Amino acid sequence: MLSEFWHDLRYRARALLRPADVQHEIDEELRYHLDREAAKHVEDGAAPADAARRARLALGGVERVREATRDAHGAVLITTAMQDLRYAGRMLRKSPTFTVVAMTAIAVGSGAVTTIVSAANALLLRPIPGVSAPEQLVDLTRTAGPGTRSPQTASYLLYIALRDQSRTLTGIAAWSPEPLTVNAGGQGTSAFANLVSDNYFAVLGVRPLLGRFFSAGDDREPGSHAEIVLSEGFWRRRLGGDATLLGRPLSVNGVPYVVIGVAPAAFDGVIPMVRTDAWVPIGMANQLRPGTDRLSNPRGSWLMLFGRLASGSSVASATAEEAVILSRLKATSTAIDPDARMSVTPATGLPGEERGRLLGFVALLLVIATLVLLIASVNVAGMLLARAMARRHEMAIRVALGAGRRRIIRQLLTESVVLFLGGASGGFLIALWTTRLASRFQFRLEVPISVDLSPDYRVLAIALGMALVTGIVFGLAPALEATRIDPSLGLRSDTAGSGVRRSPLRQVLVTGQLAVSLVLLMAAGLFLRALDRGLRIPTGFDATGVATAPFDVSTAGYSENRARLFYDALRQRLLATSGVTGVSYVQPIPLTNSTYSQDFTIEGYRPPAGEFPDGRVDVDLATVATGYFSAVRIPIVRGRDFAATDDADAPDVAVINQAFARAYWPGADPVGRTLEGANGVITVVGVARNAKYSSLNQPLAPFLYLPLAQNWTSSVHLLVRTSGSAAALPAVIRDAVRAIDPILPEPPGGTLQAATSLALLPQRIAALVTGAMGALGLLLALVGLYGALAYRVSQRTREIGVRMALGANRRTVVRMVVRDGMRLVAMGTAIGMVIAVAATRLMGGFLFGVSPLDPLVFALIPVTLVAAAFVAVSLPASTAAATDPLVALRSS
Amino acid sequence: MPDDRLDLPQGTLDLLILRTLSLVPMHGWAISERIQQVSRAALQVPQGSLYPALHRLERRGWIKAKWGASDNNRKAKFYHLTRTGRRQLAAEAHDWARLADAVALVLRMG
């Protein structure tokens, strides 16, 4: 059966695709026939001209036979398809309201799905742009043993070993993000650069737009190649696209670097989500951060690796080879973590861990969007059914005239497919708009995020394919239902009161719609509750009235001493500003998912056996300058705050949180106790009240504050508290920085509230998306419900008329219709509740401890839905009650 | 000269073509000649409907065409029966026989 179908299709396809060939063959065949026939007549003694004429006569009109043969060959399918299309177009044009409403519903649903698919495509599927043969590129990620906090980066020594020994990869390149300060025309500018191995561009297969890239061997003599490659965007925006810069020095972190090339515009680093401004050779790593030695430190872990598969090798063979190399290295060197493993995965432009997290979130959004499309499609199916039912009379006539049911179904399907394709095209336009809107959304992050979410041809293909499938699926049921016609009955039904024949399909559609929109609204309700809970979670500090700005003056070539002086001068200057009540520095900034931790031996505490075998405990910490606790209003509940006297020469001190005291020194006074870290003994001088540190849903854990003066880092976040509005502060900060050193780049300032609100970003997006889609779904479902009931009422006008004529009053009629509608509502709500119980469990991770079965949501949402549904039901009911029995009985 | 040859009942042309091709591959003209010969010229094969029928059968996969040299050494399109065609022929021949029997039975009733 199926093979026959395929044969048929292939045969027809030839008629469609190569019409000239087919025609030629037919002509050839007929000419042969005519010649043979004429030859026969000549043999019988006819004159040649007469013989040819008789042959043509016997065939019966060459032109007609040609055409009939071509049709038989299969061209006929195409002709009927064109007929169906024309007919569908005519029918849709004839009822513009229906067409517009249905297409809009589909456009909204498919726009939602297309947006999410487009984002997923851009974030997860699209290969790294601007590189050649991206399918050969693989990420090499270092993973420690299972269950440990896994660093994903490699040391320089590990990189060199892998690069030199790997044969399955034609090249392995390394890179690491490195923020720089570039002096462009006298003004310092932040540049988000990458330190890259000499073969970086070669492995990627990127060719320079201008100049050249790094040459092989640049890495071998560290510090010898002060060279920089600029991104096309940075070169154009910040340096005016000046081609004469090539070969000339550019001040990078206060040191002259030679501009050797400009990368093409299409290439924006291997993580295209993050904007890259420039590339500098890895050999310059130590010069860029004086006092560090990243190149020869075997334990340093800072490089991301990727490679290109050699022809004939696969991800599997590369994985196997890296494992062999790694075990050889472990045998000869103690520098390699014994649990270390290299995993090789196809390069995707997203680090593995982020990819997994994003995948989960996108999948959730995709499910939600699909539900909306489902509701919209069901709605349209309901409309199609009503239309088809209304056309039963017409169809009965056509069946009576000999049209096959198949033909009529095909006709109806063509109509619904056209409708869905039109809707999907609208959805694609909506997605173009929404993705542009989303791309414009600015995140306040330390790295410059630039995401192009716009749909490409792949997304268009998916959207249209989806429309084709949904058009057939949701068109088929109404078509089958409406064509179940006995022609004689169909013709008669119009006159008798037999139109009351119930359509179970309609009821199923409406019930399903209500159920799905209930699930959506439940999800929206839960996300809103989570957002509310998240906003109310006591953070333990006060972010209102505080502005923040990230600083790292070492990238401008500052030594440690000069940096200390600068940060001090900035603090003094800001404190002198009117309204400013506190200034401090912190690293890391709270609630941005960043954690710093160190190992400590804690006085009098022995960790349980097996947990920390060497007796040292891993503690999360922050480095803070004096005045931090008052600036963010974390009270010191015991002992004292850091003081200006706790400087580099004074004994090391620390402030702990209450949870630290409770965990390690329960019942004892923690002040005066000590812990020992890598840099010696630290004495606890105070206890700060508990707060949230890296994220909102983090459980309460021991936390340590160390004074910045004794634990120097030049990379800090400035915090400024004002009695006025924090929004005005970034400009003040900028002016203060420029007054002290105009060569420094302008700091990207913002409020602490904005910085910490990122912690709730997933919930915000999810609440927004599910809320909007839930509302949309409910609206569509209510329209569907109203439509279904109104249709039922119109079908039962006659029956209602009879009832009223027999003495039923308006209330009975209203009650009858309302009962009818609310039965569907009750069923839909019940089914929706069951699905919601199962489905909301999947959202647990995003809910900040709000139960997936939150009683408020589970009570309020169904009640709201039923109330809204009641309104939709009562409209047709009042129409029914207004029926005039006399008119109703006469109407047909 | 009065033409007393029979017109083909609807649907029988396919059966005749399949049966003719079941012996040996043939081109269109030969098929029409053959049917007339075998039916002792009692059947009138409408030449005009022969070619659409051939193409329809080919589309269904019951027969297949191949270009080859004819007996007078010209390029001609030869049709042969496929395996599904052979099955189809058996089925249709069986149906035809039953129909003929039934019709004969009804006619004898009177």
What is the average of the pLDDT values of chain B?
82
Helix content of chain B: 55-70%
For the secondary structure, the number of strands of chain A is 21
Distance between the termini of chain A: 47 Å
Low-confidence stretches of chain B: none
Instruction: Round the Cα radius of gyration of chain B to an integer and report it.
Output: 15 Å
| Gap from first CA to last CA of chain B | 34 Å
Structural class of chain A: alpha+beta
Helix-strand category of chain B: alpha+beta
Explain what the structure shows.
The complex is a heterodimer of chains A (892) and B (110). Chain A is an alpha+beta fold. In chain A, 52% of the residues lie in helices and 15% in strands. Chain A has a six-stranded mixed beta barrel with strand order 2-3-8-5-7-6. A six-stranded mixed β-barrel of chain A has the order 13-14-19-16-18-17. Chain A starts with a helix and ends with a helix. Chain B is an alpha+beta fold and 110 residues long. Chain B contains four helices and five strands. In chain B, the strands form two sheets. A three-stranded antiparallel sheet of chain B has the order 2-5-4. Chain B has a two-stranded parallel ribbon with strand order 1-3. In chain B, strand 4 and strand 5 form a beta hairpin. Chain B is globular and about 55 Å long.
Question: Can you summarize this structure?
Answer:
The complex is a heterodimer of chains A (892) and B (110). Chain A is an alpha+beta fold. Chain B is 56% helix and 18% strand.
